[in-house]
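Repro case for the chain-ordering regression, as requested:
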Amino acid sequence: MSIILTASNISKQYRLGLVGTGTLNHDLKRWWFRIRGKENPFLKVGAVNDRSAKATENYVWALKNINFEVEKGEVLGIIGKNGAGKSTLLKILSRVTTPSTGEIKTKGRIASLLEVGTGFHPELTGRENIFLNGAILGMTKAEISSKLEEIISFSGCEMFIDTPVKRYSSGMRVRLAFAVAAHLEPDILVIDEVLAVGDAEFQKKAIGKMQDISKTDGRTVLFVSHNMAAVKSLCTRAFVIENGSIVFKGNTDDAVDFYLINNKNEAHVDLNNREDRRGGKDFRFSDISIKDKKGVEQTNLLSGEHYTFDVRFSLKHAKDNIAIRLKFIDNQGVMRFLCNNAFTDTLYSLHETHKGNVSCTIPKLPLPNGEYSLQLTCLTSGGTLDDIENVLIFNVVGGDFFGTGKEQVSKQGVLVENSFLMVNQFKEL
Amino acid sequence: MSVEKDEWLYEISAKKKLIDLNLKELWQYRDLLFLFVKRDIVTVYKQTILGPLWYLIQPLFTSVIFTLVFNNLGNIKTGGIPPFLFNLAGITAWNYFKVCLTETSSTFTKNQNIFGKVYFPRAIMPISVTFSNLLKFGIQLFIFIIFYFYFITWGGYDLTPNSKLVLFPIYVLMMAMLGLGAGMLISSWTTKYKDLNVVVSFAVQLLMYISAVPFPMSEIIEKKPEYSWLLEFNPLAQIVEGFRHITMDSGYFTWWGFLYTLGVSCILFFFGLIVFNRTEKNFIDTV
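-- result from build under test --
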């Protein structure tokens, strides 16, 4: 395997606040240092890219000392939270901007699937736009001509190919644009899933095409994604970016685990100090945690995986007929499902043990991707003993509920195991 | 796509070369240049009724007004040339420079959407504008030639171009280089300091009046000799006056002035390109 791309000491500095106030002043200072042969004085300052911290300096490092190498033919995943610096890195790789320090050397042409449809002109026909868009993406006219038929048939717009693009539906436009991008033959393909706007079908198509490119053509791919299932199934290696630095490099599974463990909101929540609760003082929830199969605490969950919600409580008096209820609520405030021991187990009778814990196990988490909160309630025949909303917030970041390797996109409801069978089909006489 | 060992295709680095013309890459993207030119030409007048006729109406009306104001009211002498034709010649030459300058001077701000997503040598954009405006210039030149023959045949004027007409392509090149050079400079500076945008439109207006467009250079030398340097060292005045000289054999021409203009054009163009290429690297962070 030969190395096709190396990045050494890549850093990128941005100015906080308004560009313009004091720009001239800083420019003059920079110029004064340069003519004396000194380094840019503002490169020495700069805070770490941590959005939660208060801005204390005028400059911030969006990326700091990024080093990596890419081997020919590998699919490298880049994982990180929003704002970790992934997009900045992509911008540098696709030469939209330059790093503040360091350099990237490459042996191949880099193209990215993120600029689908860039430069489409509404007045030009589909055919003319194929040429224009192809040329913008770096193809020569001859290359486009040789692939024209292929591109047109892939897009499925044969009928409208000589109609101005402004008459196209948005779906057709995306298909045409994607057809052009998919027929690029760069040595290194950069895919930013976050920026790949479009419907679920289009995203699926993009990922499918990516699989083809990497597996059958053996091309090098850099893949940026939030979808851990896609990263796991596609990438051969991955690294995790956090606050502008690479914090983990290694094989994909380890990198995904590292990301999930380190990006928990808070896996273990102490509830003793919560005052916003309903109910008496006899029974109180004291803390809660979510654990995966191995017993490791998690807040970034995968659909279809096995999780245990561990709830601790304290009580003053013995109680009978107790039900513990967990409500799973999405970020729109809609309950997706609930778990209640009254449905699945007997009602509990609690003795004066002062403390105890109860666990609720979900063998196959039925939630699609999204952010959810948990409402915890303890009920008895006499009424509510304790009730806390938003006891913790967790993310479902992907996963493979149905074991099909496809991402489940659903903004409502839950996933339920089911199977389809085409029983018969016949023509009506 | 086999690549030799240790032979990097290109580098993305923080270091900037002092002088970076990037001509090799511009050449690699020549197909894109051609397609941009084609796009501009095809799309500008789509869904207009008069289409390219608009190219004719603007200089003709301007010439009529100039003739009325400067020659009839202001009594400016045009040295035996029909005043209308005199103005039309000046406006034709001036217009090409003007569109090159104004349309390229907002390159970065106007195209930040596409520039923010994909890389190609940015200079392709202003260069394509310069090429596509050649069509406009051609049409305006054509109308100038029609009136030229009209005045010879029906106006009874004795107009002949002189032998320096062979310099005509160089004049066009100089106009393009001046407009493009200045446009690239301004567009580079406007990425940070937006004030320049405001300045450009009215500065171009004013510049026209000190570039000998509505009057011959002889007029100012005669009436206000202390200000004649303003025109003599103004490459645009040299071009406008020179254009009238080679086509109608009148007015002021010196080889010194011609070479001076050529020099200034080249310097401005290359300086503009260098500044532009330096700016393109990370203008997206400041724009």
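Ordering looks correct now. The first strand of chain B starts at residue 10 and ends at 13.
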